């Protein structure tokens, strides 16, 4: 699917300063690119831990404001919104984190990857159609850029990464797959550096090194993973984040589509269903579940949870901003580890938790971040 990290990188690269651009130009372009209303200074909301909140200090939404124009009442009114945003972020991470453990459960029950991908795609498409119908936005743009986006989201965001990931989940623990899927920003940075889209920066290079260290800690030490885990399927699992990184690079740098995020996912899901029906039939796998077994319910539940999480994420992007909403990427991995322990009884070793710390540190350094000072009110 069009992942949180894909949208995250699109937002970041959209606001990235160009060489020679002044601070005022950065602030002006950022406001045009992200038509969110004015936000309170981060000091009001516990540094930058809580999301920016619309400021209506001058009696109208989106009015220009700064530290001097926001009243005590505005600050107090911001707190419920901030707490709701934090709760939404946690809930989205919990829903998204269910994916790998539920699919792992289905794979252990003997279900084949092609059927799981097909059923997830059908359920996800149905849920998206309902959501978009309720929003009155079911119609899809059919410009050339949007059609290309649908094809790439269907192929690189759904079919290929899911086939690789679900195949691997029949052989490796869910926590290991969730861990490897978090490598999307690291793969994306490597791609942009190879294509000369990104400039080399020492801190981000350190992030790449920490990411490589995290993978080494996961794979190399004896006892890090269960002895029954085939090494080759760790590399198969890593194909999923590579596909997501390719999708992310296209969305961030090449896409000229008119379609929005949910529209892109609807179109991509249609492409995925169209591709998976003949592929599943050719593989001799079931085209539709014969009975409502626990494994089937797990697959359908993972599909619905993924769509609901994605829809919630898009809503959170609009209400809280990309800087806050994209922190869900860390929560998804953490929740996936938690669900794997709770639902499947998996027991990650100490090496795995150490690798996770190194991975999160690497992701923090790798991810491009806008210059917050240039985006604050009063700095334009």
Molecular structure report:
This protein is mostly helical and 380 residues long. It has one domain (4-375). Helix content is 68%, strand content 0%. The protein has 16 helices and no strands. α4 (99-108) packs across α7 (174-181), α4 packs antiparallel against α12 (294-320) and α6 crosses α11. Mean pLDDT is 78; it is low at 1-14, 26-76 and 370-380.
In total, the number of domains comes to 1
Instruction: Write the H/E string, N to C.
Output: HHHHHHHHHHHHHHHH
- Main pleated sheet: none
Separation of the first and last Cα atoms: 36 Å
Radius of gyration using CA atoms only: 21 Å
**Beta fraction of the residues?**
under 5%
Mean pLDDT: 78
Percentage of residues in helical conformation:
55-70%
Oligomer designation: single chain
Shape: globular
Number of helices in the DSSP assignment: 16
Low-confidence stretches: 1-14, 26-76, 370-380
Summarize the SSE layout with pairings.
Layout: H1 4-14, H2 23-33, H3 72-97, H4 99-108, H5 113-135, H6 144-168, H7 174-181, H8 184-194, H9 202-219, H10 231-253, H11 261-282, H12 294-320, H13 322-325, H14 328-344, H15 350-366, H16 372-375
List keywords for this structure.
68% helix, disordered N terminus, 16 helices, 0% strand, 380 residues, disordered C terminus
């Amino acid at each position: 699917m069009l992942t949180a990290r894909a949208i995250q990188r699109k937002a970041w690269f959209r606001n990235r300063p160009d060489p020679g651009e002044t601070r005022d130009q950065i602030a002006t372009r950022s406001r045009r690119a992200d038509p969110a209303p004015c936000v309170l200074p981060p000091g009001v909301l516990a540094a930058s831990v809580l999301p920016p909140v619309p400021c209506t200090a001058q009696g109208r939404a989106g009015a220009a404001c700064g530290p001097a124009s926001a009243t005590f009442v505005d600050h107090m009114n911001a707190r419920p919104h901030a707490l709701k945003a934090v709760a939404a972020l946690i809930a989205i991470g919990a829903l998204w984190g269910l994916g790998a453990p539920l699919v792992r459960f289905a794979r252990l029950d003997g279900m084949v990857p092609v059927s799981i991908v097909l059923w997830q795609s059908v359920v996800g498409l149905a849920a998206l159609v309902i959501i978009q119908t309720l929003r009155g936005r079911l119609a899809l743009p059919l410009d050339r850029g949007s059609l290309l986006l649908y094809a790439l989201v269907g192929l690189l965001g759904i079919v290929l990464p899911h086939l690789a990931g679900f195949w691997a989940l029949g052989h490796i623990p869910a926590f290991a797959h969730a861990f490897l899927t978090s490598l999307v920003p690291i793969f994306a940075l490597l791609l942009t550096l190879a294509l000369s889209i990104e400039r080399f920066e020492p801190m981000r290079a350190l992030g790449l090194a920490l990411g490589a260290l995290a993978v080494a800690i996961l794979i190399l030490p004896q006892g890090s993973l269960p002895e029954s885990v085939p090494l080759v399927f760790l590399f198969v699992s890593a194909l999923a984040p590579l596909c997501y990184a390719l999708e992310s690079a296209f969305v961030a740098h090449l896409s000229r589509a008119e379609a929005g995020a949910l529209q892109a996912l609807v179109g991509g899901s249609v492409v995925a269903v169209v591709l998976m029906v003949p592929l599943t039939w050719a593989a001799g796998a079931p085209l539709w579940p014969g009975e409502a077994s626990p494994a089937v319910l797990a697959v359908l539940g993972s599909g619905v949870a993924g769509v609901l999480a994605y829809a919630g994420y898009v809503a959170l992007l609009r209400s809280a901003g990309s800087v806050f909403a994209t922190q869900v990427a860390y929560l998804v991995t953490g929740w996936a580890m938690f669900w794997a322990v709770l639902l499947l009884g998996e027991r990650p070793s100490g090496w795995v938790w150490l690798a996770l710390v190194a991975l999160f540190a690497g992701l923090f350094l790798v991810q491009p971040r806008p210059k917050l000072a240039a985006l604050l009110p009063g700095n334009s």
